[in-house]
Amino acid sequence: MARLQKITPCLWFDGQAEEAAKFYVSIFDNSAISTVSRYGKEGFDVHGRPEGSVMTVTFRLDGQEFIALNGGPFFKFTEAVSFMVHCESQAEIDRYWKGLTEGGDPQAQQCGWLKDKYGLSWQVAPIALAEMTTDPDRRKSERVMKALLPMKKLDLAALRRAYEGP
User: Fold this and answer.
1) Helix or strand (DSSP H, E) at 161
2) Element (H, E) at 45
3) DSSP line for 83-134
4) Contact in structure between 119 and 130 (CB atoms under 8 Å)
5) If the chain, 166 residues long, is cut into consecutive pieces of 10 residues, what is the mean pLDDT of each piece?
6) Are the C-beta atoms of 68 and 61 separated by less than 8 Å?
7) pTM: predicted TM-score of the whole model, two decimal places
8) Dist CA 25 CA 22 (whole Å)
9) By C-alpha distance, which of 66, 121, 114 is closest to 94?
10) Secondary structure (3-state) at 6
11) CA nearest 11: which of 77, 102, 86?
């Protein structure tokens, strides 16, 4: 049996765990659904799910393991937890932004944050942003922050121009 990663995020869905896993796997390279477990008769008085319906889906996104659970309507995603997608280029930013916002509401977000059609929050940002915002030259990092704050989908070229200055 393969070794499990030490920490695996578990995403709670009402009944869309398998649909969501397929959606996410379609967006990221090096991704696949690993296993699907199903509810049985046992515990019906607790879980209330039909026998044979999907309970959990284990899947990998670019090598990172996740579990999606059909746990019922009790809990919803909030922006308090999000997944960061580190991008090397504007093409990557554009690709992930387009894929993850399909059916979602990107207008409600800014600074590279978006919410997908399941309500899960993501941050799609260039790897270079960390370097730009932590530069010891505060003028550079402040110019980057000024450019960043009004953006929704991040524009790497505009951030670089702000970083370089006049």
Assistant:
1) helix 156-164
2) helix 44-47
3) EEEEESSHHHHHHHHHHHHTTS-GGG--TTEEE-TTS-EEEEEETHHHHHHT
4) no
5) 80 97 97 96 84 96 96 91 96 96 76 93 96 95 96 96 94
6) no
7) 0.90
8) 5
9) 114
10) coil
11) 77
